[in-house]
Amino acid sequence: MLAPITHVLGARPNFVKAAPVIRALAALGNRQRVVHTGQHYDERLSDVFFVQLGLPEPDVNLGVGSGSHAQQTAAAMTGLEQDFTEHPPGLVVVYGDVNSTVAAGLVAAKLHIPMAHVEAGLRSFDETMPEEINRRVTDQLSALMFATSPEAIGYLAKEGRPVDGIHLVGNPMIDTLMANLDRFDTAAVRAELGLPERYVVATLHRPANVDDPEIASGLVQALHEIAAVIDVVIPVHPRGRAVLEAAGLSAHKGIHAVPPLGYLEFMGLVRGAAAVATDSGGVQEETTLLRVPCLTVRPNTERPITITHGSNRLITSAELASAVLKACDDGPYTGELPPLWDGQAGPRIGRIITDWLARDG
């Protein structure tokens, strides 16, 4: 019997991308295990996603929790080494660019276990971002690289990755979004949060935006300017809560600072928004499919296809208020969607992995 495929998940974006892949591999008869590192340990950032996305209960939760990048990565590596040793995988599948992803890559490589990276080849070319380091290292350790957009193939080839291991498959995050469209109840989430019919969604959690009190204060002032015209709802990530609140986030009556939301609630909120201001990578993609104008408060993005397609725009904190208000006036995104964003990325990945294991596993 073939050794199982082991999926390593650690944070909200991983769960959303993994669901269609796990489902597709199951339909093809593959044995699978799910290891949750516990990098996101808040129930609203973790457990609720497993329930809402129909993910199988994790076979193990390593309980890594928070800490510095070194502490978190080291704890994940220690737990994963033990798990992979006790339950040797035939293939390790990792997702995105969080610390759990690179931890799994390092452990798998040293135990001589092949690895597949879903969302390979994304690059911001900003090495001050921990995620950029995670992405580059993970791709160097991967036997199979699943790209969500065409430019990723060029980046991987330029970095010397073998072309026969690179596959353009589309975006499994979009699979999950499309599969759940009928479950996004904007009216219900608006009623629950006490929101008017028109509102803006904001999400801010990147260290560059929320770790420095001065920068956070500038962003909060910009949100206040927006809230003077249109209400702003911001699910506050645990990572930036204290700094944003200290900067006066909730001082404006038009700002609705709420706890993290489940996947269905958050996407229902985004679907009904006039615009979204974010520093998240995944939200840039989700808004593209939902055709909600997106303003990304960062100097760069690893999702350049959202910029070239016109669904997303990079802005500075100084531009935030004016850009969001203009986007609200301009209305929904009406351009083409990126190639292969058709809800079939999971089945493509499932077939490639199944064939690869039968041939090389």
Structural notes for this entry:
There is one protein chain. With 361 residues, the protein is of the alpha/beta class. The protein has 2 domains: 183 residues, 3-Layer(aba) Sandwich (Rossmann fold), CATH 3.40.50.2000; 150 residues, Rossmann fold (3-Layer(aba) Sandwich), CATH 3.40.50. 46% of the residues lie in helices and 14% in strands. The chain is built from 16 helices and 13 strands. The strands form 2 sheets. Strands 3-2-1-4-5-6-7 form a 7-stranded parallel beta sheet, with helices on both faces. Strand 9, helix 11 and strand 10 form a beta-alpha-beta unit. The model has no long low-confidence stretch (mean pLDDT 94).
Quick structural overview:
The protein is an alpha/beta fold and 361 residues long. It is 46% helix and 14% strand. It folds into two domains: 5-170 and 344-360, 3-Layer(aba) Sandwich (Rossmann fold); 181-330, Glycogen Phosphorylase B (Rossmann fold).
